[in-house]
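User: I'm curious what two different proteins look like when written out as structure tokens. Can you demonstrate?

Assistant: Sure. I'll show them one after the other, since each token string lines up with its own sequence. Here's the first protein:
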Amino acid sequence: MEPSTREPLVRKSSSSYRTFPGSTCKRLDKEYLRSLHNKRLYLAVFAAVLGNFSFGFALVYPSPVIPALEAHPSPALRLDQHTASWFGSVFTLGAAAGGLSTMVLNDRLGRKLSIMFSALPSALGYVLMAGAQGIGMLLLGRVLTGYAGGITSASIPVYISEVSHPGVRGTLGACPQIMAVLGSLVLYALGLVLDWRWLAVAGEVPVLVMIVLLCFMPNSPRFLVSQGKEDEALRSLCWLRGKDTDYAREYEQIKDSVRKQSRRVSCAEIKDPFIYKPILIAVGMRFLQQLSGVTCVLVYLQPIFKKTSVILKPEYDAALVGLVRLFSVAIAAVSMDKAGRKILLFVSAGVMLVSNLTMGLYIHFVPAPQNGTIANKTLVSSANLPAEPTNYITLIPLLAAMFFIMGYAMGWGPITWLLMSEILPLKARGVASGLCVVVSWLTAFTLTQLFLHVVDVFGLEVPFLFFAVICAGNVLFTGCCVPETKGRSLEQIEAFFRTGRRSFMR
């Protein structure tokens, strides 16, 4: 591109200021994006998101396992309410520790090696659960698989955002959520035919495939440039984009962006709005995402269905919800680069709000004999109750759960991860993504640990009404704080936070 036709990203003075390049540069960008070969990019993303598949599989592992272990003949493996609560929630504590580790691993090892490192605790965790002789081994296995999930939660979205280009980043950014949903659905399906030990054995398969494929994938060009490995970064970008494309121009943009942020973020720089605003937005979104109750619903899905005595068997209900979740996140992946991020977040929060409110009001007002709650008390003990419904009105909690998961999967599930990787400044991306994961999973741990106790004391409707209030807050947060990043390069997004120009929103 000739200097005479290059238009500066940030103009110093103009009444018609635009944060992003003008029509000429936009036309050239579109021509460049159309010329790219994406097959290798898709392969690299697929290899990485197998870690999310394993994460989704491990996250909902307690859903079919808790009812089985509550009735286990061996006292050493039998779960009561207290141990079931820990079995469901300790995964998130491990995930928080994994996110904390990623604050160092992402910048030291790089995105790809961090993802590969997660295979070690994941494989060991599944081995412990498959061969468990007591509750201690089960809990340790849950912690290790959670630790691996925390690493992949922070590393994979960053890796995908840095190897992708604006033309497909929205779609590929939804892939971690799609694969996590697919992993959960496979767990629900296998739970219909396998016992809990063989479920843990099955969890080893995606971990092993991931580690083999990633050995042949390139590291992030942006990370390589930040480490001074410019030749390797150029080869990486060439492999991802294709030899016969104008990848050299994109490479120069990456180098320029990294050069401006060559130093790691210091304590003094945290006060800079360019640094703290995107971090606060990303952390706030992860915090509100978990407060909406999604982890509690996924982990305790079968016990919740047993308690409300929906019209099908709980294990079939859980598989059906998983299928709806997969369909919804696929819609989000297709729509994200067309409709935009914010509109999907608004729709998502609205659907979750109505669903949680419906579930809470149903449990509160429908008489106990009809919703099968036995005075609306202990959730875990309801595993021994008959699941046969007395009325078709018991379809309401199933539909409410389906729409809640649908709403989450269309927006606040995939887009929260995508925006985290898009808006965080490069110099703080490794540390800040780890911080987001820590906040997210500590929140999830607190909720999943308290969920059964709150249900036992106050009834099942109280958590769902609380989640409805949080979803209303999600709508306000989206409108006030979240920027639209559709079609913007990472360098353009950083320019917006650096300048604060509202033209970004146009």
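Here's a second, unrelated protein for contrast:
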Amino acid sequence: MSWRPTYRSSKFRNVYGKVANREHCFDGIPITKNVHDNHFCAVNSKFLAVVTESAGGGSFIVIPLSQAGRLDSHYPKVCGHQGNVLDIKWNPFFENIIASCSEDTSVRVWEIPEGGLRRNMTEAVLELYGHSRRVGLIEWHPTTSGILFSAGYDYKILIWNLETGEPVKMIDCHTDVILSMSFNTDGSLLATSCKDKKLRIIEPRSGRVLQQASYKNHRVNRVVFLGNMKRLLTTGVSRWNTRQIALWDQEDLSMPVVEEDIDGLSGLLFPFYDADTHMLYLAGKGDGNIRYFEITTEKPYIQYLMEFRSPAPQKGLGVMPKHGLDVAACEVYRFYKLVTLKGLIEPISMIVPRRSDTYQEDIYPMTAGTEPALSASEWLSGIDRDPVLMSLKDGYHRPNQLVFKAPVKEKKSMVVNGIDLLENVPPRTENELLRMFFRQQDELRRLKEELTTKDVRIRQLELELNNLKNVSPKDV
């Protein structure tokens, strides 16, 4: 790609990246060494969540943003999964609710207490089982409070209604592993990239494929909707194995509008799009740099701006929602970079340089807020609405009055030979099988000891009864 400087009039031409001071970084975190292509990190205005390395089952750590610095080695974790955790996502409307998916085929929803964890959390608010193989991706619906999407290695996408705790739809149009999912602004369309090299646009409620692309010169890895521009951007690999980005028209996926080669490195490119500033950020897995571009509606469509460089390679990146940014410092985006070798997470702020200290309305338009536009039942009935917008002018101080309520399910039973099959769920992994075996051994040992004690007591009572019978009435 040619990086010739152009002198367009752009307010974001001089955006630069600023790494936080060491005291504002998070140190001593045992970041997972899993090679799954994901970020392993999720951020909101209260908490930072990171998937950690653990033996026997999967876990992730949740740290309040106010507790920056070196982490205690015995810091409590969320550790209810029986397999490695592959993805975590915060609910955009309930800041204490986080979803996770794992190799144990389950999706779980957790409620983090105010102020963070004080002990290990093993009990989830909801445990969702529906996939037959491990679950690699989860996404919250962008405008609905109780709808969660999960994509598994069984090539299926399940839509979960968290008001009932049940799956309401299965999208079964993929022929290989789903690599990424992205929604348009109102959540009426879902774009997916797949290992079968196809890009799809799906109507999520019906599961119908509206558009499909299989372009030989661009092998798609990741896809992202570009806000309301009716465009998609994909990252992938060209025919000559160079990293590449492509811009697509939402209405016509026969061929990309623009293709641009990036470099010849091999790491996966993660795209991040800011709909408020129309800026695109590209971060490669294992790279130390973050490139950023401006997306326009006219040629050349993708305008290169600058590059943030760092010597430390990134395993993944978390992104702060807009209402958590520092508007006084003209911060338009913030990454949380995972540096596995150092066990370090460092915030990187993307800042527009301005001399004035007043609020800059031109770089902070009305943005998607923390109130859902729809309930789960409304969305399932066919209603679509744009996000409820909020202003960042006075900072974000209004607490969300919504309360997440997990469904209370009626206890069902299926008894066979005196065993409740729904209460005693069969083990799904080898670790879980071993754990259940040792638990049963302990239970058998306890029951044998109890039986021996009762046998001794029965013999004692029989002797006492015989003594009473042998006593004559005169001796009484």
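A detail about the second structure: The helical segments are 376-380, 430-470.
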